[in-house]
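Lecture 7 notes: from sequence to structure.

We start with a single chain of 702 residues. Read the sequence below before looking at the structure.
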Amino acid sequence: MIGIIAAALVAVTSALLFVFGVNLLYLTVRALRRPCLAFGPAPEEWDGAEPLVCVQVPIFDERYVAERVIDAVCSIEWPRDRFEVQVLDDSDDDTTEIVARRVARWRRDGIAITHVRRGSRIGFKAGALAFGLDRTTAPFIAIFDADFVPPRDFLRRIMSSFDDPDVGFAQARWGHLDENYSLFTRLQAMAIDFHFLVEQPVRSTSGFFTNFTGTAGVWRRAAIEDAGGWSARTLTEDLDLSYRAQLRGWKAAYLEDLVVPEELPVSIDAYRRQQSRWATGSFQTAFRLLVPLVRSDIRTAAKFQAVVHLLAYSVGPLMLLQLACYPALMLALGPAGIRLPPILAASATVAIMVGVAPWVGFIAAQTRRGRKWWSGLPALLCQAVGAGMSLNTLFALFRALRSGGAFERTPKHRIVGRGEEWRDQAYVRVGDPRALIEGAAGLASLALVPVAAVRGQPLIGVYASMFGLGFLVVAGLSAVDLLEVLTLRRLGKRALSTVQTALPAIALLGAATALLLFAASMPEPFEDGYGHWLIAANFATTGNLHDPLFGMEDTWLPGYHVLAAAVLQIFGVWQLGALKAMSALLAAATAACVYALAPNARQARIATALLVLNPVFLFTSGSAVVEPLLTTLLMGAGLAAVKGRMKVAAFLAAAGVVTHSPPSSWSARAACCARGGRWAGRSPQSACSCCSSSASRPPTTP
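Now the structure, written as tokens:
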């Protein structure tokens, strides 16, 4: 019964994911057929019929960016007698004083700007916007979040959209102030570009429902009031209002060639909170509006696109549900492996293949932005981050079962370029406990990979590894942010610089260790592994170092087997896997030596990656054989020699002598390294030349 239920859930989730993926490909193809719009000139002359426009700037604790956004909106070109600004300030820190000073400055310059204070945060952003709307008679309302910087000609470009009396709101495209700050902000920019260069243009020009993004746009006051006004019943008041307005018959306009840059979150914890709020609000809006939407008289294609749009965040929970079904299937169907019906197997395969649809869409977005197609290739990492955020989305789904909720803003630090520091500023929150759950989920997902491989289910292995990698990346980024913030605040900038230099090496070697341990979890590929395990197990149980199969004690030295017997004494004599894990950890130590031997960080990363990805090294290092220990000892000896630690080099080389067969082939090296140890005062190069000359001779036959 469990297997049947799990198989049914896999079939249903695969079908739904297939629909989502195909729809993304459809939007991508439609977007690629559209020409890339050039930036057209703004109207040069006023025609005397410009309407009164009120610019609203909702702010809550934005000490770093409040001044910038106020200066930008007050510099917008529009007749001054038809232009007013409301700074909707709900702050409870020194942002209020900053805003007051800037408002007074622009008021002296003749701008009709008001500093609006409610005295509470009732309704959060939606409440602030509604409060400000009641205090203006303007027929058009422009809205900018605190981290946006609108261009001077914003209103001159966008207001022509309202020449059509049925247009309820107009939306501009988001740009990115800090896109090049880090790889993380670059990936965020790609995801946002996909929305604004693929989804929004197609939905807008095809007559499908689209959404106001809460900022960088203008609303017709009549549309707001006709749709019922701003509501705090969802955490995405913008999505909620825009859909209610379109259900009332209002149209949306989208200006792809009008770009308003914004500041992306620079920390993973800030990004997690942002995505949590967006996902919660999207689910709340879907719960509230799906029934009215389905019952509406809009055409079927538009209705379908609206449903898919509102449920877009469901992809993460659906994929998690599918992942959770695979262990149940394998447990229920036994060791013989999963035997899915052909149709079900085919649907799962297609669903996984369609999983690359977002990647294709991200690449298309970069081409529409005027870049080369290969600039979008790193977007593959967006899917790993998306998989890692799926648990966060699942939590958001549960929170969305109740309307409303606390509006947690995304902190901004006025970061624009590389090297700018935010970790010592206010509003920094690190150490999100959800990262612990994500880390545990990552390890659990990776544990499924070798099981799937043994049972001949490579698709399940790929699926689980994608989630395992995503969870560990997200959790790892949280850990890195926590470490860096604590280091900076407690030890200072010099310590932070040291940590930031070491972190790439730690991350690379950590990934290498994980890969080597994964290889060690596979079935033993070499028959020698069983022989070495048998010798070590015999020694661990009887104390007799003897080869019970071949009796070839005179051809090898016992170093490896002594170490292996000690491991088996701890974990049990039947634990061949413990010996394989030991080999993997020794191989990781070898990789660390290679990294340390490289002349610079770039070559170190390349050399380490090439070593670990070498199939011979990878699978030998996951086996219960002598070579990983020998390689580690010799690489350690070489590193010690290069560093001038000749005694250490001699000791490690001597340890290597008693590790492998034939022993006589290493006697010359041991003698040479021992002599090098006595000559510790010499340069490492002169000592190593002795080793090199002896190593170049052919080994003596035992």
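The longest strand covers residues 251-262. Keep this in mind for problem set 3.
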